[in-house]
Amino acid sequence: xxxxxxxxxxxxxxxxxxxxxxxxxxxxxxxxxxxxxxxxxxxxxxxxxxxxxxxxxxxxxxxxxxxxxxxxxxxxxxxxxxxxxxxxxxxxxxxxxxxxxxxxxxxxxxxxxxxxxxxxxxxxxxxxxxxxxxxxxxxxxxxxxxxxxxxxxxxxxxxxxxxxxxxxxxxxxxxxxxxxxxxxxxxxxxxxxxxxxxxxxxxxxxxxxxxxxxxxxxxxxxxxxxxxxxxxxxxxxxxxxxxxxxxxxxxxxxxxxxxxxxxxxxxxxxxxxxxxxxxxxxxxxxxxxxxxxxxxxxxxxxxxxxxxxxxxxxxxxxxxxxxxxxxxxxxxxxxxxxxxxxxxxxxxxxxxxxxxxxxxxxxxxxxxxxxxxxxxxxxxxxxxxxxxxxxxxxxxxxxxxxxxxxxxxxxxxxxxxxxxxxxxxxxxxxxxxxxxxxxxxxxxxxxxxxxxxxxxxxxxxxxxxxxxxxxxxxxxxxxxxxxxxxxxxxxxxxxx
Length: 496
What we know:
Elements lengths: L3 H15 L4 H19 L7 H17 L7 E3 L4 E3 L1 H24 L10 H17 L5 H20 L5 H32 L7 H9 L2 H19 L8 H7 L2 H27 L4 H25 L5 H23 L4 H29 L10 H4 L1 H15 L5 H20 L2 H21 L1 H7 L15 H18 L2 H7 L1
Antiparallel strand pairs: 1-2
Helix pairs in contact: 2-3, 2-5, 3-4, 3-5, 4-5, 4-11, 4-14, 5-6, 5-11, 6-7, 6-11, 7-8, 7-9, 7-10, 9-12, 10-11, 10-13, 11-13, 11-14, 12-13, 12-18, 13-14, 13-17, 13-18, 14-16, 14-17, 14-20, 16-18, 16-20, 17-18, 17-20
């Protein structure tokens, strides 16, 4: 007992000392608890009180991140690792979550719904909490807990507003597919732990255990692991849930699912790849091969299937899948220490994707339809909206003078540099496929200005431009995308 007491004392002291690393997450947790209390007891008397608590929670967490710059630390027995890369990632997550909160509030402002909208803000805070943890850990146990926190929150967000058979079917597919991928990932993690006896994927003990493990079983474990990560990133072949869920869920929820989880998972994936790539054993080669194959297949599947889509939300689903392939290419550049390339592309992706869905939501509220054909001739009636929407489409393609062009240019440049240094054919293949799929994306993104400005409408209904929250915020993001396309150093200098 005498020997045991100092251990307990040291453990408690270490936990208390480590808690300072989680100030932003603690702020989100407090906001989550307060939002539940507000939803239960105060929402009827003080309308939007839960929304205001969520907004304050996101802003408080963002502010608490600022003093943590240039102060890398570890805590909770190595489970938490804070550095500038994770801080930038969490800032992006909080910014996108805050915008989503406003988006949800405005979307349901004038809609009669049976469900309590206040509960959604609590779920949004919980999802952001899980995503934030995902960016600061290299421990497989905490990775799994974080992913499941986000997954459960996402299931609720998708199914919460189901009003018809199609939406309910999308929610059920999402839950079933997510549960299967989670089970596969957990089995893979149990195998990895059995091989290594260690849960930190950056530790020498973990890597040495993988080296000593049977190759076939280790390969199976890594494949199962990729299944869980692939579900959150929606890369092929784990993308099948995306189109139905994106179409069935309310547009703000779709915007969140297509954007925010990818930031956290990409940061996790970058750390994993950087740790394993430095080893010169077969599992590092397997990880590299899987990454290249997945990136190529994801870009091809996402962009080519998007050509056949007539519904704007389904088109954006496959567009998001295609962009995941480019994000995986950016992960390759991460091994050279180029965190600024990955962060720049993720920041631009957040602006482009949120802006696109804000425009989709605005147009859906105006014309009651999200099909591309419904945009016919509306460019003259809604010029402010469609000029901005067309610019966002140009940026998503990757054409100048937009930030989308700079982001893709930086990724291609870094991958080409890797090819020049190693003469690895896989890098060249990535560049070729990336260039081809970028050209393919021209044909579906340019449908927006084609239908809006070059085709005549068949409807005589009067539609007038109104400057709502959605199209004004989307236009601000559009301006930001153009400014960053002309002056990328404004952001890149901050990310160095």
